[in-house]
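SAMPLE LOG
Freezer: B-3
Tube label: C17
Construct: single chain, 247 aa
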Amino acid sequence: MDGSESQATTLGVRHALLVYSSPSALFRRIEDTGAYGWALVVLLGLVTLVGYVQVQSGLLDRLVDERTEKNMEQIERDRTNLVERGRLRETMENERKQGEFIKTLRRLQVIVFSPVKMLAEYLLIAASLYAVVALTGRKPEYNTLMSICVYSGFIELISYVLRVCMMMYYGTMNVDTSLALLADPGQGTVLAAFDPFLIWFWILVAMGLIVTQQLSRRMAIVSCSMLCIATMGLRVGLSFVAALGQA
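STRUCTURE (predicted):
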């Protein structure tokens, strides 16, 4: 009887859907074990699949091709009268090769870097929360904290899917789930901080900390609010860096 009861309450991949409908019921199942492992594998696999779909849409390649063509036109205008034809042809060929190299990097960024970045984020968040829990005098449980991050991360999966759907529907890479959509395309903006999926993720993390009793309600809200603000600041900084890269 105890064995079947334990099997029924063991956390697994199938419980990930509870994060959308009943997160408190999900977090009550969390124990200090590595049961989140398969959920993490599935989450990262789905993020990789979404990235593959994005690459297959052709939008990434089209964006690089347009930029390459623009650079080649500029080279031709600037150097036609200054450089002999053979050298100009060589310069244009180098520009094409550079464009192909950038395409490869962009594909790797979307398919490989996105899941790696997500994993690194969760490891860092879990480590930060571990330190916070330890400072409060409670016993931190790393597997519990990592489980909270992983299952809350299925909210981020929706934002990945939504962005790709918007890209394919509107035929442009200038889409976002944050209020950065209201700003001029390609411009850095503080509006990038306000993403409902980011806020939703941190609300779920705070809820998980409270339900699993890793932190008191007050400390969970304060800690997650501060980490959320830090993440918002990082996103704003990255939006300005990306804008400078496109300039």
